[in-house]
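The records we work with from here on pair a chain with its fold. Here is one such record, which you should read through line by line:
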Amino acid sequence: MHRSTRLAGVCLVVATLLTLTGCSSSLRKNYVRDKAADHVYRKELAELWPHVQEVLRSHGYSWKEMPGRYVLETEWLDSGGGSLGPGTASRFLVQGIVLASGGTALRVMRGDRITQSIGVGYVDREIKTEEEYAQAVNDSQASGVLPTRQNYFRDLEIELEILRLSDPEAAARLDAEALAAHP
């Protein structure tokens, strides 16, 4: 009995440590992402913009830009869905901002849309010939798309990815702060 109680205690301690380690890791990740949201770059937008484009290109996006301004909007990128399952796609709107207090900032908005294809294939009459069968099949292949649902939100993961690429020293400082705050 004593041995099994001791073993249970050791298992409980190990499980607790593993849980706390997982929680700390998640807290650090959230800390860094949230701090990156408020990051002020000490670089000109012209220096940052190639990094923005590189990150978006690495995710498979193409885009249109506003001439003379640091604003771009990606094309919708399909990310799956079957012939009758929901189709999903996403796009980004990125804006470079010159702050009155000095420095620059980036804001990345992500849009996700979901569409649901529908098919209404059924035959509702008696078929006597091959021609009638062919016509019935053709008539029954009507399909459509249910209304699209779209959600837009600020994408802090992409903002952090851009920060890590364009200002690795600042990203390293945030990582160190996160580790100190959530060991």
